[in-house]
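Retro notes
What went well: the complex prediction finally ran end to end.
Inputs used:
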Amino acid sequence: SYVLTQPPSVSVAPGKTARITCGGNNIGSKSVHWYQQKPGQAPVLVVYDDYDRPSGIPERFSGSKSGNTATLTISRVEAGDEADYYCQVWDSRSDHVVFGGGTKLTVL
Amino acid sequence: QVQVVESGGGVVQPGRSLRLSCAASGFTFSNYGIHWVRQAPGKGLEWVAVISYDGSNKYYADSVKGRFTISRDDSKNTVFLQMNSLRAEDTALYYCAKEAYSENYFDFWGQGTLVTVSS
């Protein structure tokens, strides 16, 4: 089955840039989507189709992809960005949705 | 505005059954696929199942295939998840999530309903 690999945790100081990676075999051929989940809340879509942002999501959130890795970049990090972040793809071979294991972003 | 609201969770003994409901409003229900995603306490997101917009396609995670059944009733704007032969490892918060149009990502999520499997 298809696997997405994320670092368990990332720490960043306020005002700096956080980068959260998501690795997967041949991920370049798939559309990658990113969700933010704050404690006690449902996930919220922050990036879809690799780099597009839903309305209402700040421009500080951006997505990119290179080789076998997709990256969610959060610029000018704020305390309110502290959350778990998940990447997601659709695996057409198995007709399954696949989530990465999640990354806890800590704002120092 | 778009809303999806889950219900039907509770405490159930191992081996028993439970049926979850996902009631939707604020969009043309029959045009969208609906997914169930679960999250065990303190763990990450795990996809469970999807039903296509017209009900013709249903896919399941390997961990629930053969035990869970997803269905929809467009007259009630509701999706169901019938869960049989429940196990302790099925204990989780179960989210209902709406697909974006003709896409395989989720633009709206419910707040979840908690299922606890325990004797």
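What we learned: The two ends of chain B are 40 Å apart (CA to CA).
What to try next: split runs per interface for comparison.
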